[in-house]
Design a protein that fits this description.
Layout (H helix, E strand, L loop, with lengths): L2 E3 L8 E2 L14 E2 L2 E2 L4 E3 L10 E5 L7 E7 L2 E7 L4 E4 L7 E11 L2 E12 L9 E4 L7 H13 L4 E4 L20 E3 L5 E3 H13 L3 E7 L2 E2 L25 E2 L9 E3 L5 H17 L4 E5 L17 H15 L4 E4 L7 H7 L5 E4 L4 H4 L2 H12 L8 E4 L12 E2 L2 H13 L3 E2 L17 E2 L2 H16 L1 H4 L5 E3 L1 E5 L6 E3 L7 E7 L5 E8 L21 E10 L6 E7 L9 E3 L1 E4 L2 E9 L2 E8 L1
Parallel strand pairs: 1-11, 12-13, 13-16, 16-20, 20-21, 22-23, 23-25, 24-26, 29-30
Antiparallel strand pairs: 2-4, 3-4, 5-6, 6-9, 7-8, 7-10, 10-11, 14-15, 17-19, 18-19, 27-30, 28-32, 30-31, 31-37, 32-36, 33-34, 33-37, 35-36
C-alpha cells in the first residue's frame, strides 16, 4: 500500500504574481500571493450518458504522473499523463459523479497534484447547482466566455438571469416581431440583446440550463398603458384604495406594484408575455420570484386573499402554457414552500434564507433543508439556498468576503444535502444580485473550486436519496478534541450522520467549530475565525441504526488532497469503529461501507 501525503488547500503551493481572476479555462487560478499549480478544466458543466468528456491541463506535471478516474472510492481506470489535453469516456450509468485526479510518486509517497469532478446526468434537476448572471451591457464573445468558463469550472448547471428584463409586467423589450436591441432594466442600466443571446448560447454549449428571472406578480407604474387592469392587483385594504407596493426609490425607474398571482386574467396576461420571451430568446425556463409574507391582503372586490395558494395555481398555469420549459420558484424565508411543492412542476426547491442567524445559528441551514425535504411528496427535488454571506459587512463598502465564514456555511449546506446559490460574475453578498461590494480573495476562489468539485464528485453520497439522518457518537481517544452531535457548539466538532438507502453505507460529516467565535451561519459581520487544522487524531465512532461487519472505511475533504478520497485503516469492536482522522480543517466526510 502506498503512503499518502495530503496537500492542504489553504496553503500556497507555488509563489507567483497575483492575478485577480481566471483568465480562461486553461489558466491557473490565483489565490493570495500564489496560484494553483495544476489547473484542470472540462468542456462542459455536466454530461449526458455516453457523452465524451474533454479535459485540459494548464501545463504538464513534472515527472511521471498518472491520471486516475474514480467513482466515490472505487478506481475505474488509471493511465499515464502524456498530454495536457485528452478525452475520457465515463461509464454510461446515469446520475453519477466522478473524480479525476493527477498524482505522482515522490520518495515513495503519493502526491496529489490536482483534480476535477465530472457529473454524468441526463437531467440537471437530479443534482442542481445554481448560479446567476446580473449584468447585460455590451459584451464581446470573449468576455461572455470568460464568465461562463468560470461558472463551468464550478459545474454550475442552472443559470438564473437576474434583472435582465425590460419591465416586470412586460419582460420582453419590444415585440416578438420587432424585439429591441437595447433596453433599460429596473435600475436604468443598458441591456443588450446580443449579450443575453450570447450568454444563453454559451450556457447551452456547456450543458447549462438558462432560466430568466421575473416576479410572479409584479407590475411597474406604467402597467395600465400596457394592458394591466386595476382589478388584478392585491390591496392593503378591502375597498381597493391602496395597492400593495414594493417601494423602490431613485435610481430605480419604478416601484413594483403587486398583482394577485392567483387571478386568472393576470395569469393569462403574464403567461402570454412569458411566451413572448420564449419566442425571441432560447431560455430553458422561468425562475419565479416573490416577496415573502405581505400580511393581510385583499382582492379588488374586498375578499381576503390566500395568495400563497395562488402560487400553486400560478406555477401550474405556467407549466401548462409552456410544458417543455423548466420552472423554479423562490420560497422566501420558507413562505409558500408547501404551495410551491404542491405544484409538483418545479425542478428543485429554492429558498431565500432570511431567518436571523442569532435565533438558531447553523440550525437555520439544517432546518431549512430538512424542512424542504419533508415537503417532497414524491421525493427527488433537491434544495438550493440563496443565503447571503457577510450581509451587514457588505453594506459598509467594497472589501473581501471573510473566507472562514463562507467555507463554514458551505460545509454545513453541502453536508445536509443542499447547494448554495452564490456564484455569478461575482459572489453574492445581498439580495440585489448586481451588487458586488464584496469580492473573493484568491484563497477563497481556490477553495470554492475544490468545494464545488467535492459536491459534484460525491453527489451520490450527498444528494442521492438516503435522507435517513442519524446520530453519530464520536470521541477522541486521547481527549485532545471534543465532539457533539449536530447542532454545533463552539469549541467542538459537530457530527452529522446519514444512512444510505442501500443498507450498506453510512456517511459521517465532521464539521469543525473548535475555533468558532460565533455560530452565525452568514457571518454577517465577517469576523468568523479561521479554524485550526486538526491532524492525525485517534477517534472512535458509533453510528445509530447501523450494525454488521464493516468492509471498508474511507474519507475525503474539500480542504485537503483536492477532495480526493483516501482509504483508512480501522478496527471494529461491535458497533464501534476506531480510526485515525488524517485531517480536518472545515469539513471532512467519512464513509463506512458494510458487507
Amino acid at each position: 500500500m502506498r503512503r499518502i501525503t495530503y496537500i492542504l488547500l489553504g496553503a500556497a503551493l507555488v509563489l507567483g504574481s497575483c492575478i485577480d481572476e481566471v483568465d480562461s479555462s486553461v489558466n491557473p487560478i490565483t489565490y493570495g500571493d500564489g496560484y494553483m499549480e495544476v489547473y484542470l478544466s472540462t468542456d462542459k458543466a455536466a454530461y449526458t450518458p455516453g457523452e465524451e468528456v474533454k479535459i485540459k491541463l494548464n501545463k504538464m506535471v513534472e515527472g511521471n504522473a498518472t491520471i486516475r478516474y474514480r467513482h466515490l472510492n472505487q478506481v475505474i481506470e488509471e493511465t499515464p499523463l502524456t498530454s495536457n489535453e485528452w478525452s475520457w469516456n465515463p461509464p454510461t450509468d446515469d446520475y453519477k459523479g466522478y473524480m479525476v485526479d493527477i498524482y505522482t510518486i515522490e520518495n515513495g509517497v503519493e502526491v496529489i497534484k490536482g483534480s476535477i469532478a465530472i457529473d454524468v446526468s441526463s437531467d440537471p434537476k437530479m443534482f442542481p447547482r445554481n448560479g446567476f448572471l446580473s449584468e447585460y451591457g455590451k459584451m464581446s464573445e470573449s468576455e461572455i466566455n470568460k464568465v461562463m468558463d468560470n461558472l463551468n469550472r464550478h459545474h454550475i448547471n442552472y443559470v438564473q438571469y437576474q434583472d435582465w428584463h425590460y419591465k416586470h409586467h412586460m419582460p420582453l423589450a419590444g415585440s416578438v416581431s420587432a424585439p429591441m436591441e437595447v433596453w433599460k432594466d429596473i435600475i436604468n442600466r443598458d441591456c443588450y440583446r446580443t449579450t443575453v443571446d450570447g450568454y444563453i448560447k454559451a450556457g447551452h454549449e456547456r450543458n447549462m440550463k438558462s432560466l430568466f428571472y421575473n416576479l410572479a406578480y409584479g407590475a411597474l407604474s406604467d402597467a395600465e398603458e400596457d394592458g394591466v387592469s386595476e382589478e388584478w392587483y392585491m390591496f392593503k385594504d378591502d375597498n381597493h384604495g391602496t395597492i400593495d407596493t414594493h417601494i423602490l426609490g431613485s435610481p430605480f425607474k419604478s416601484s413594483i406594484y403587486l398583482t394577485n398571482p392567483g387571478n386568472d386574467d393576470w395569469i393569462d396576461y403574464i403567461g402570454q408575455k412569458t411566451s413572448d420571451v420564449y419566442d425571441v430568446y432560447d431560455f430553458d425556463g422561468y425562475q419565479i420570484d416573490q416577496l415573502g409574507g405581505r400580511g393581510t391582503l385583499y382582492d379588488y372586490w374586498g375578499n381576503e386573499l390566500d395568495y400563497e395558494s395562488g402560487f400553486t395555481k400560478f406555477i401550474k398555469a405556467m407549466k401548462n402554457k409552456e410544458p417543455e420549459k423548466r420552472l423554479v420558484m423562490n420560497a422566501v424565508g420558507g413562505f409558500g414552500g408547501q404551495e410551491i411543492a404542491d405544484s409538483e412542476s418545479t425542478d428543485f426547491f429554492y429558498v431565500e434564507v432570511w431567518d436571523k442567524p442569532t435565533d438558531r445559528g447553523f440550525e437555520v441551514i439544517s432546518n431549512t433543508i430538512t424542512g424542504q425535504d419533508n415537503l417532497n411528496k414524491n421525493g427527488g427535488r433537491k434544495t438550493i439556498l440563496a443565503a447571503y454571506m457577510n450581509y451587514d459587512f457588505g453594506k459598509i463598502g467594497r472589501s473581501y468576503f471573510n473566507t472562514p465564514g463562507v467555507l463554514m456555511a458551505n460545509a454545513a449546506i453541502h453536508a445536509w444535502g443542499g447547494a448554495h446559490l452564490e456564484l455569478g460574475e461575482h459572489m453574492l453578498c445581498n439580495e440585489y444580485f448586481p451588487n458586488s461590494n464584496l469580492t473573493m480573495n484568491g484563497e477563497l476562489k481556490k477553495s470554492m473550486i475544490t468545494f464545488y468539485d467535492f459536491i459534484t464528485a460525491y453527489e451520490n453520497l450527498l444528494r442521492d436519496g438516503g435522507n435517513s439522518w442519524t446520530g453519530v457518537d464520536a470521541v477522541s481517544l486521547t481527549g485532545e478534541i471534543n465532539f457533539n452531535q449536530w447542532p454545533p457548539q463552539k469549541g467542538n466538532i459537530a457530527t452529522v450522520g446519514k444512512n444510505l438507502d442501500d443498507g450498506k453505507t453510512s456517511v459521517i460529516h465532521l464539521l469543525n467549530y473548535t475555533n468558532a467565535i460565533h455560530l452565525d451561519w452568514c457571518d454577517t459581520n465577517a469576523d468568523q475565525k479561521e479554524q485550526d487544522l486538526i491532524e492525525n487524531k485517534e477517534i472512535e465512532l458509533s453510528i445509530d441504526g447501523r450494525s454488521g461487519t464493516i468492509k471498508s472505511v474511507w474519507c475525503a475533504s474539500p480542504d485537503f488532497d483536492f477532495g480526493v478520497a483516501r482509504t483508512l485503516e480501522f478496527t471494529q469492536n461491535s458497533d464501534k469503529i476506531k480510526l485515525t482522522l488524517p485531517a480536518l480543517k472545515y469539513w471532512t466526510m467519512i464513509v463506512v461501507e458494510y458487507e
